[in-house]
Amino acid sequence: MSDPQFQKLIQSFSSLPGIGKKSATRIGFHILRMDPTSFQSWIDNIEEAKTKLRFCDECGGLTEEPICSICLSDRRENGILCVVEQPEDIFFIENTKEYSGKYHVLNGAISPLDGIGPEQLRIKQLMNRLDSGQINEVLIATNPTLEGDATASYLSTVIKPMDIKITRIAHGITIGGTLEYSDQYTLGKAIKSRLTL
Amino acid sequence: MSDPQFQKLIQSFSSLPGIGKKSATRIGFHILRMDPTSFQSWIDNIEEAKTKLRFCDECGGLTEEPICSICLSDRRENGILCVVEQPEDIFFIENTKEYSGKYHVLNGAISPLDGIGPEQLRIKQLMNRLDSGQINEVLIATNPTLEGDATASYLSTVIKPMDIKITRIAHGITIGGTLEYSDQYTLGKAIKSRLTL
């Protein structure tokens, strides 16, 4: 059981977010019990997704093409940009069906302790998009955490001189929690009742 | 985000035991963020383990060879056989360092509701091993659940005529729980204070 191959298998799974050693062991045995055909199609699905999926050159969201379908869509509002920390946040907001504008992913939040400042985030790309003059509202949907708040207030400061309305989702999100774990109704309400900063 | 490739990726992970849709989504994005080299070695490790690992022809435990190192070892007691439901249970018992005999994996437990009777388990193989006459104790370490208890009492009935001592780990295991989630000390104590049936 201390077999090095099995250790490597467990290690592969315990390196994934949210999976401890016991869960990794269970998953490892599940993999070993799979018949070779199911296993191969399991591996193939993951490899194919990894090969085909990428992040949008414009907004940073998930896509199979250089520019994602939300950025290319002419059925979405062009004047409003929702700023999120992670590409998966787009997924959670789309799920609420309360937002029809476009997105911008920062790839993180400002966190001095972790050495993450504005330069490490996709803020320059955001400013370039705002410079185009087509955007009249920026909806900040960073997480209601220390880092998310710091990012929101930084963005608010740098965008303010540009004569663009700045809003932030506000209602219903538990303080200290993350966007990912809000249910879609709470998150939808938070978008509806956003406050002007 | 409703991208079919991404859905397939999430599906691959949510099909694993103990992983729900939200965890699968987080893992999916983790995979997409991995650099291609790390991803390839992650995939390679899993594929290599799946190819090299198999179940022992003798005891049913995890091994890279036809017969596992525990079955082949001459430093382990040959007269005692510990019967477990799953190959991973060997791992948990080895971890206690309280047992030095050999093992026999049933690959499940008797469960009439799921259509699992003695014929679906590796009980015939167990009886063949007992017929060799070398075994003087069978330590039943099935889980303390309805199915595990049913299996233990079935085994006790069929082994009794053979003049073999039958014991069962007893102390400290939470009723209704599973071997997997016992800590190693409780499980070790349970092995030490086993009761003759």
From TrEMBL, chains A, B:
Question: Zn finger regions (C4-type) covering which residues?
Answer: 56-71
Q: What keywords is this UniProt entry annotated with?
A: DNA damage, DNA recombination, DNA repair, Metal-binding, Zinc, Zinc-finger
Check the record and name the InterPro entries matching this protein. Answer: DNA_Rcmb_RecR, Rcmb_RecR, Rcmb_RecR_Znf, TOPRIM_dom, TOPRIM_RecR
Question: Domain Toprim: where?
Answer: 79-174
Q: Does the keyword Zinc apply?
A: yes
Name of one Pfam family that matches: RecR_ZnF
Q: What does this protein do?
A: May play a role in DNA repair. It seems to be involved in an RecBC-independent recombinational process of DNA repair. It may act with RecF and RecO.
Q: Which NCBIfam families match?
A: recR
Q: Of which family is this protein a member?
A: Belongs to the RecR family.
The name this protein carries in UniProt is Recombination protein RecR
Which species?
Leptospira yanagawae
Task: Print the organism lineage.
Answer: Bacteria, Pseudomonadati, Spirochaetota, Spirochaetia, Leptospirales
What gene is this protein a product of?
Answer: recR
